[in-house]
Amino acid sequence: MDTLATDEIIVERALTGDAEAFGELVHRWERRIFALTYGMLGREEDARDATQETFLAAFRNLRGFRGEAKVSSWLHRIAVNQCISRQRRSKVRSESALEEEHETSFTTPFAHSPAHVAEGRQETAAVRRAINSLPVELRQVVVMKEFEELTFREIADALDLPLSTVKSRLYTALKQLQMRLQKFESRN
Amino acid sequence: MNEIQNSPGCERASDLIAFLYGEADEGEALDFQLHLQQCNSCRDEVASFGDVRESITAWRDEALAGFVSTPMSAQPKAKSALAALRQFFDLSPLWLKGATALAAITFCVLAGWALFKSNNEVISKNPDAVYTAQDVNRIVKEALAQQPRVQPPAEAPSPENVAVNSRKPKPKSSRTASQSARSQRPLSKEEREQLAAELRLLSSDDSTLHLLGDRINQ
Predict the structure, then answer these.
(1) Contact assignment for A167 to B13 by CB distance below 8 Å
(2) Which stretch of DSSP H or E encloses residue A165?
């Protein structure tokens, strides 16, 4: 709750021309927004771009923020919209090409040992593939929950959905992920 | 108990999710734990969903381990207008870039066309408009001749002028420009004679005529 009040104060300061204020807001939320965009897009580079776009859009629309929702919900909503529009734009790219990019760009920076690399690469690739294959409405809920650890209420506010819808979507998403990961395990 | 265990799907999916993520309150959690002891379906799902969550968490931790603060966290307000514009174009979709470029080109073409048209209009009025100084003088003279004449301010009447004016036919404004100009210079001999005759001051003696001329010319 303290965070909520502080976010609102930061936004107020930014609106009154405090040059540092918006930077504080970015610093506070960028990691979580990056987590969201990464979970939604599955690619670090895209996630970074989407995170930047999210904060730019927030900055441009700062005066439009009426304080009816939490700053965090507002930012998440912008981030989700950024991801969705980015995915629409990149739809021209084939899924296979995207997969190849993921194989190289995603796993390389986080490698540890050769054995771990192979195992980790397979596992993370499977999870990423499974999440990427989810419909957007399911993916955004599972990412907001798992990557950002938002509460059901926060997700509902950010996506403007009833609480029951958030729960049912999350249940469906987990069910589909479970089935896809089982398929992956049975293949290996 | 067996009925619940064999059911393919349980109606308590919502409670399961709340329990799984620790968002059920104490009473709800206790109630669902009791339910789990009876429901194989929910028990299996809680276990398998837990595995899925672990996999996602592993992926998330790997992904976020490489997270470094982006340059975006620097003060966005400190950006110059040019940098902001550049960033705007960088982030703009292709159609917006195209539309902006088209608008700029259209503006330039219209501005150029308007400029060309205005120049053309001036030229078309005088297609051979090469003027010499003489031409200019002639045009100015013609223009002045066409303008209505403005009466010079009345001078204080001298005795001579009064005499001359009293004999001049009216209206005085009918005097030509040459007559007016003549009054400003010394009169020639013929003029003096004519004037003297008019004033009946002419004598047969030429010397008096000269004197008279001098007097008139004073």
Answers:
(1) yes
(2) helix A163-187
Asked if A168's CB is within 8 angstroms of B76's CB, the reply is: no
Which of the listed residues B22, B41, B65 is the one where a domain comes to its end?
Answer: B65
End-to-end CA distance of chain B: 148
Residues whose CB is less than 8 angstroms from the CB of residue B187 and which lie 6 or more positions away in sequence, other chains included: B195, B213, B216, B217
Q: Which ranges of chain B would DSSP assign to H, the alpha helix?
A: 2-6, 13-20, 26-38, 40-65, 81-91, 94-125, 133-146, 159-167, 177-182, 189-199, 206-217
- B70 and A109 within 8 Å at the Cβ level: the answer is no
CB contact under 8 A, B76 and A22: yes
Token pair for B173? 């404004």
Residue B60 placed within a domain = yes
Count the alpha carbons within 13 Å of B149 in the hemisphere toward its beta carbon: 10
Structurally, chain B folds into a number of domains equal to 2
Beta carbons within 10 angstroms of residue A4's beta carbon: 12
How would you class A130 by CB atoms within 10 Å of its CB: exposed for 0-12, middle for 13-18, buried for 19 or more? buried
Selecting from B17, B55, B75 the residue whose C-beta is nearest the C-beta of A23 gives: B75
Residue type, B30: L
CA distance B125 to B118: 11
Domain that holds residue B191: 159-217
What string of pLDDT tens digits covers the 218 residues of chain B? 333 333 456 788 899 999 999 999 999 999 999 999 999 989 999 999 999 999 888 888 877 776 666 555 444 445 566 666 676 666 667 788 788 888 989 998 999 888 888 776 655 555 555 667 788 788 888 888 877 655 555 444 444 444 444 444 444 444 444 555 555 567 777 877 777 677 665 554 554 455 544 554 44
Q: At what angle do helices A136-146 and B40-65 cross, to 10 degrees?
A: 80
Q: Spell out the domains of chain A, with CATH numbers in brackets.
A: 2-187 (1.10.1740.10)
Distance (Å, whole) CA A153 – CA A165 = 11
All residues of chain B having their beta carbon less than 8 Å from the beta carbon of residue A127 are 55-56, 58-59
Mean pLDDT of A76-105: 68
Across the interface, do B52 and A181 touch by the CB < 8 Å criterion? yes
Interface test with B, best of A178, A179, A183, A188 (most B CBs within 10 A): A178
Task: Please indicate, yes or no, whether the overall pTM of this predicted structure exceeds 0.80.
Answer: no
